[in-house]
Amino acid sequence: MAQVLNRISKKHNFVVDGDYDYTLGLDGSNAFAKNNIAFIFEPYQVNPRQWDKIKQLSVNKITFCWNKLFCKKYGFEYLPHQWWFIWWNRDMFDEDLELRFSDNIHKENLACMILGNKNFGLQDKHNLYHLRHEIIRFFECNQINDFHLYGDWSMYPHVYKRERAEPISDTLKKYKFCFCPENTNKPIYSNGWVTEKIYNCFRNLTVPIYLGAENVNTIIPKECFIHMSDFKDIADIYKYIRHMPERRYQEYLDHITLFYKSEKCRALIHPHTLASGLDRLL
Predict the structure, then answer these.
(1) Pick from 90, 79, 92, 95: which is nearest to 3 by CA?
(2) Helix pair 129-142, 234-242: axis angle to 10 deg
(3) Residue 21: per-residue pLDDT
(4) What is the DSSP letter of 71?
(5) Which of 57, 65, 235, 277 is most buried per CB count within 10 Å?
(6) Cα 31 to the chain's mean position, in Å?
């Protein structure tokens, strides 16, 4: 993470404190030293202790957060979570979009999921880690040829491919669809929580199957993704994507291409935009 921030920022030198992955210091400073810059990576449901600790660190020079509601409440600075996408796609600097999209037209497989196997934080109905298992179990028991799984999921041998999918673009470009549930969809707490998962799909012309941020439709046009809440269960989603007419599938790709090339999207994910925002504030 520090390598990417140092590459895009012209004024500051960032380092990552290994003991506290949510805090970045300037010039090698300790995680709890004065004038630190803190970045909140996860929603409260995932790591409540992290949030409680950061709120106590009044010595921080700036705390960045992706949730506008909490920025207003706690005095944080707003930084869209899409900047995390830059970390996952360090090869995207000054890329040729026309060439990239032309290389991702033909898909060999139906669907995949590229997510870690973890579960921590608050256990409530809005914790979506259980949904990952629900998706996997459906395909493991019913449709092993139409779904591939990446991450530390070796307990599901029939759909499991391998632990890592890096570079992630080399994997995603093979699939027409990708399941992208976030960590939480809790109202207010998930506001703005649109992570790199859906943008990774867009960059590789893979249609995301999404559930997460309560306000996702204000950030990304609803025509660009399949919203899981529109279906009664995973079987219903599978039926929809398995029998989707080519014309309907192409409509998704057209909307994705239009959005990804738009000024709105580029303003969110382009590294130079992030750099100017950081340098303005720090």
Answers:
(1) 90
(2) 60
(3) 42
(4) H
(5) 65
(6) 25
